[in-house]
Amino acid sequence: MADQLDPDAALMLRVKQGDAEAFEELVNKYKRPVLNLVYRMLGDPFEAEDLAQNVFVQVYRSADRYRDSAKFSTWLYTIARNLCLNEIRRRKRHPAESIDASPFGDEEPRQYRDQKMAAPAENVAESELISKIEEAVRDLPENQRTALMLFRDQEMAYEDISEVIGCSLSATKSLIHRARETLKARLKPYLKKGAWPSESEKL
Which residue in 24, 109, 150, 165 has its CB near the most CB atoms, within 10 A? Predict the structure, then answer.
């Protein structure tokens, strides 16, 4: 049963029955992870916030069609990825247009990583490394970037990632491996003695 295997699927089945509190619980749990993923795909914090809200609008509108045959998170991230791909295609057709408005208002700060206490010089060095990592991640092919973010940031299993991006398990593992090797090669000049700092050790 879904309520035994996946508590989030059980919540979504309640949403399907019109339970607003269950929907709010899902939004509160996944708002930040979805925002992080969308930001990684789009690279713009303002557009990411707006599209992340649209993800949950789509989840709510699609409640009647939801089936608990897969994990809720897999279904959710599939919706998020598809909306991002639609937005990327729209940008190519209309490069001068942009999404405006911030769905979370002032509730959520526009930052996508935990801030750590450090000396000013360390902050500068780490900030530069983070910037280089994000730039390198943005330059990855979309399927590699998405697979890596789901694996690294969301800690999803390979099987679930393969469902989100629509490819085989072996292809998913290959995508993540190639993404990690590409990032390591590109970021090697910024690393000390070949050791990965805390922010990049999962790459």
Answer: 150
